[in-house]
Amino acid sequence: MASSTALRELQRDLENKANDLSKLQKDIAKNHQVRKKYTIQLGENELVLKELELLMEDANVFKLIGPVLVKQDLAEARANVRKRIDYISAELKRLDATLQDLEDKQKSKQETVFKLQQKVQSFQAGKGKA
């Protein structure tokens, strides 16, 4: 009777750890999606900066604000794009650090789940022989 209680406890623990692992995997997938979005934005902003660098100092630059184009100083436009690139780069670094942490946790959880699965299997095999 005690052995079936221990087996149920092991199975419950295994289920909880597997759910935790599943949540981590979802977080990793979400991190990848956000990282992809920022990578695309970074590429777009770098292209905009290259285009702005090609302009003459007296060129007209307009910024879209809602449905209206507003004239903007070229130096200000370049500075804004550089700030945006810096921000996006910092976010990508933060996401990379978070991803590394999540992957380390995932590896640890996978090892824990594997060990629990082995315990359950060996417990069931021992019970089957008895």
From TrEMBL:
One Pfam short name: Prefoldin_2
Lineage top rank: taxon: Eukaryota
Protein name: Prefoldin subunit 6
InterPro entries the record matches: PFD_beta-like (IPR002777), Prefoldin (IPR009053)
One cellular-component annotation, GO: prefoldin complex
Any Gene Ontology biological process: response to cold
GO molecular function, one term: protein-folding chaperone binding
SUPFAM superfamilies for the chain: Prefoldin (SSF46579)
The encoding gene: LOC113733106
Entry coiled-coil feature ranges: 85-119
Cross-referenced PANTHER family: PREFOLDIN SUBUNIT 6
Keywords, in A-Z order: Chaperone, Coiled coil
Family: Belongs to the prefoldin subunit beta family.
